[in-house]
Amino acid sequence: MWEHERLVVRTGKRSGMTTMVALHSTEAGPAVGGCRMKPYARITDAVTDVLRLSKAMTLKCEAAGIPHGGAKSVIVVDRELTPERRRAVLLDHADLINEFGGAYRAGPDVGTGPADMLVLRELTPHAYCLPEENGGTGSSSGPTARGVLAALRAAARHTFGTPDLTGRKVVISGFGSVGELIARGLEGADITVSDVDGSRRTGEFGWVHPDEAYEVEADVLVPAAVGGVLSPETVARLNVGLVVGPANNQLTDDGVAALLRERGIVWVPDHVASAGGVIYTLAREDDGVDHETALKRVDGIEATVERLLARQRDDSGTSVPVDNMGV
Prior knowledge:
alpha/beta; Rossmann fold; 6-stranded parallel β-sheet; 16% strand
């Protein structure tokens, strides 16, 4: 069923590459969401991704109490991305963002960063997270990781009786900028990481092949890479009690939440756990608060998760997972 307000797909006049924006909702305010730049096997795969991601942004803003709706944009990488072509497609994307007249405001996502937002700003005012030296808040990886750590504290308290994960085994699937920060923030935990990029392997943490990350016996699984990782097949192989992570759209479909429930695995929806970046960015750039005040708002994710999990206890007091739409 169509839920979105608008979907626009364009072929860039400078780059010849496909760029798109999905506007899910502006009911609560202008829609915000990152710009993802990556290859897709088919254009229809990119459209499916941008539609699901934009809906997740609406849920994320609602859960965080942010007066914005959700949107997302995608740039489909279908050829060698030279510096010149990257700049060209970003300018094409800025043209598309302007078509929304401020109803969509972009930020970084997979494949883009503050430097790319600076290019967008050459043609559109509707871009967040410019480099700090250019007056923006820079990368949102730090606040995103901080928010996941806050969610982990609440979920661990709910599941294990204490927010302290010291001595517990944690598997982090995806050792990029956010995953690494989460690993370093879990002092005292027994941490194993995985990533499709083997060059990210270090001697600081245990390492497992990405194909095996969802089978490792552990206390906590942290999905921190791409979405669509929790399928019926994956859930059947899980050997953990708690799943909390920043990867967007972790479930292949909403019915997977019921499968997690059946197995007694507590899952915190990604649109709640991953909200730290958007909370921090909008607090700084829209509300004009200082760094510490914005971080306190990010820390509020802990209380949000506590409330969600408390509502999801059954009559016997057993922990059950939060439903995907249970905000």
